[in-house]
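Table 4 source record.
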Amino acid sequence: MTKRIFSIFLITLSLLLGNKVFAQVEKHAFWEFSTEKISNSELYLVFKAKIDPGWHLFAPSNPPGGSLPLSITLEPSPYYESNGKIIEVGTPIKVFDEIFQKDEYYYEHQATFKIKIQILKPIDFEIKGSLDGQVCTEQGRCINFTEDFAIPIKGSQYKAGAVSGQKTTPVPQTQHKETTATAVGVKQYQAQESTQTTKTTHVKIKQGSLADTVTKVSLKPTGYTPILVSNNPWSGAGKKQSLGWFFWISFLLGLAALLTPCVFPMVPMTVAFFIKGKDKIRGRINAMIYGISIVLIYTVPIAILVAITNIIGGENLSADFANWLSTHWLPNILFFVIFLIFAISFFGAFELTLPYKWVNKISKKSEQGGLIGIFFLAFTLVLVSFSCTGPIVGGILVESTQGGLILKPIIGMLGFSLGVALPFTLFALFPEFLNTLPKSGGWLNSVKVILGFLELALGLKFLSVADQTYHWGLLNRDVYLSLWIVIFSLMGLYLLGKIKFAHDTDVERIGVIRLFFVIITFTFVIWLIPGLWGAPLKALSGYLPPKTTQEFDLERMTLGQSAVQLCDKPLYSDQLHLPHNLVGYFDVYQALNCSKEQKKPIFVDFTGHGCVNCRKMEEYVWSDPRVLKILQNDYIILSLYVDDKVIETPKDRWFISLADGKLKKMLGKQNADIQIVNFNKNAQPFYVLIDWQGNVLAQPMEYNTNVDDFIKFLEQGKANFKKQHPF
């Protein structure tokens, strides 16, 4: 059991490792430059690399179509001549690369290379140039580098050699001991397909007051580039995601945990401990210290994990991992299984308990008295109540992995611990209210079972995310709603006493409070049923699969497809869809072309299959008739799914990432890269308005369910588009 709980903490820690987007300038190959005399008129330029542990440097002999080989550029000079060959001192490591499906050659720890030079004029001078290459880790993290050098040559120590007249044009790199360097004065970039020519497009990106020029390498001869932004004068990006809702939900779960069989009986026992004795004031102070201790025990370990993560990770860890954790099938299936286990535990099949040695050891320390004794008394409560609170804490931590917000697990634990600690403190301060508490009984186990039903229903969300991102088609909206209807119907029957579990007592009569819970539960079930025929169910829009997965949708059958005409058939439209019968594109290149053809601005929607807030925006904001009219008639819609794991783009859409230097083939990775490179953002939803030239037309907007704000955003984009492109 302890291993399982520890794994939950590790999962949270792993998410936090991915909270940074861009790395600082990194250097993992350190170079030394020298010369080595061969004869009275010849010498070697010697390039020695010291490579960091865990990294490797690709050899000049690395074959075309793979990772970037080392190349050396020498500036032309009348004082020397070179045959342009790189001599590799030593044998590179040979490894078969599964991505490129070919053998690759690289060096670890250190490497030495030489280039032969013939002196033409016996005077002192410098040979200048640069090294271009790539270093990678075994896990596939790669960094491209350029290293300039200026090597002093004591030409006066040599005699002028004869001019050979040899040209320094590169020849194919087929050898592994001695290979051809880049031609003197010419830089070479290794394309992924040797039959294609590489075109370089310069794109200016402006973020507020920070302007930079980046170079995009495209593999398509026509110059396809996935970079959207050529001019972005807008600083900021809209509202920040609020954590308040998560705090209050966690707080309510803390209060709910108080009503479980493991915690509720502890209230009068603990309060009696603090109010005994003559010094009532001291007892109340101790009670407050007790409550603070509970908060610290739950919150501080998570805060320490967050701090350690940021100290260790710094700026060098990619946000791709946060996206992986939120959308990959493996963690989401794991989260679903965790919720399922928690639900089964609450149903009474087994109890999640900590070793008794731990509890006994901590309990003895609570007898010491003073502040230390009070702290360990609180620690004893946390351990004793673990079988009831553990699944709730685990659920909060798993939920905190969604969204990639660094403070989310801390906020969750703070809210939960306050919900647990506050009643203990208040009853110790005002013990007369203890008489108002209900007596312990079978209702406590009922609370536990109800929490089990909720864990079971909420766990389906993680299974749904995996299903959407991998297009399995197992859990569409119809099936999901059917499961929820069954789960909550069973919960209603349980509240009526028609279903019993192992530790339940007979329900002889239905109390008023229980009756109200029955009414609420069955009302919710009846409200869910129209969703089977396409009702929007806006209140659950973030937790249900999108309506586009609905097999039977009366709205879609009645309205049909939008009458808006696109320029050509959208790529990937057999697997990706827009809500509310809207039509648009899922490919940047198509949207840019159609924008130019139809003279319309582009509405760029960075979204995801597993994005809760994306679904809320679509149901609460996009569905407004005013918004729908603008999107349908005045914009070219471009939806970029950043978490799709299945769709591979055509080969002419592949590109090298500016963020990490890796080849991007999959649609989801490409779209995530576009957002990160252009806007330094990796959260969704994220909305940008641009023209076909890549000019940003309004300040980008994030999650904001205010319809009027969204309409102003769209209208501002239209107005600026007309100013820039008067027709």
